[in-house]
Design goal:
Blueprint lengths: L1 E9 L3 E10 L3 E6 L6 H8 L7 E6 L2 E2 L5 H4 L3 E4 L11 H6 L14 H13 L15 H14 L4 E5 L7 H16 L3 E5 L3 H4 L5 E6 L2 E4 L5 H10 L5
Parallel strand pairs: 3-8, 3-9, 6-7, 7-8
Antiparallel strand pairs: 1-2, 1-4, 4-5, 9-10
Helix pairs in contact: 4-5
């Protein structure tokens, strides 16, 4: 699904150096690391918001540098950590924005689009507030709306940057169930999180950002780096 080839990721210097590996077609991938190691930058690079310093990233065998933005948005959806301001939009408006990459130049939602929006609202448990202004929602409700928008985008790859940051504990547990259900439908979900107790067992594969590289849970030296990450308090 996603292949990294000699990928160097960062801004004026490398945060993550020389990544060479492939991610599977489906499942839940946990992305872990202390603050500043490049988790959000990695996500922004995959969706084309941040240019690679060197190397290549391929999605469905296509180099992301050669995929037009609208087409890339049909392949990958991204939920940032930040709670954005949406002005006078309702929850339904925010979620329906996920359909934008699939609309014609007229921008009119068709029956299929509306059904996907409604299904995404229901899956995230916010159908009852769909006509509420997003500005009047709690941070947790806004977070659910952002995730619902990504689901409505109908992509095969879903990137979630700290999706539980503004959720209470019952909502976090419910999100885990929803992510498991979504991944079983054949989607690849990459989740960045500091909630190790929630995501460590859920993940099919763990990625740890440490010492400017990505160590996968399939690497022989993963446990050494993971123990260092958790026992030295770097997970906080």
């Amino acid at each position: 699904m996603i292949r990294f080839e000699n990928a160097h990721i960062g801004y004026d210097h490398d945060l993550i150096e020389a990544i060479d590996f492939e991610l599977p077609n489906s499942g839940i991938i946990g992305l872990f690391g202390k603050n500043g190691t490049g988790k959000s930058t990695l996500f922004k690079t995959i969706i084309g918001l941040q240019a690679l310093r060197r190397g290549n990233i391929f999605i469905h065998h296509q180099n992301i540098s050669e995929i037009p933005g609208k087409l890339l948005a049909k392949k990958v959806s991204y939920c940032p950590t930040q709670i954005l301001s949406y002005g006078n939009l309702t929850v339904w408006d925010v979620v329906s924005n996920g359909r934008i990459p699939h609309l014609s130049w007229l921008g009119k939602l068709k029956t299929h689009d509306i059904e996907l929006v409604e299904n995404s609202l229901e899956l995230m448990g916010i159908s009852d507030i769909k006509q509420q202004l997003i500005s009047e929602c709690s941070d947790g409700q806004k977070q659910k709306a952002i995730i619902a928008s990504a689901l409505a985008q109908e992509t095969s790859i879903l990137l979630l940057d700290e999706p539980t940051a503004f959720l209470d504990y019952p909502s976090k547990q419910e999100l885990l169930k929803q992510l498991s259900f979504i991944s079983e439908a054949g989607k690849l979900i990459i989740v960045s999180s500091h909630d190790l107790d929630l995501f460590e067992e859920l993940c099919d594969l763990k990625l740890l950002l440490s010492h400017h590289k990505i160590i996968t849970s399939e690497d022989t030296d993963f446990n050494k780096y993971w123990d260092e990450f958790t026992t030295k308090g770097l997970a906080k």
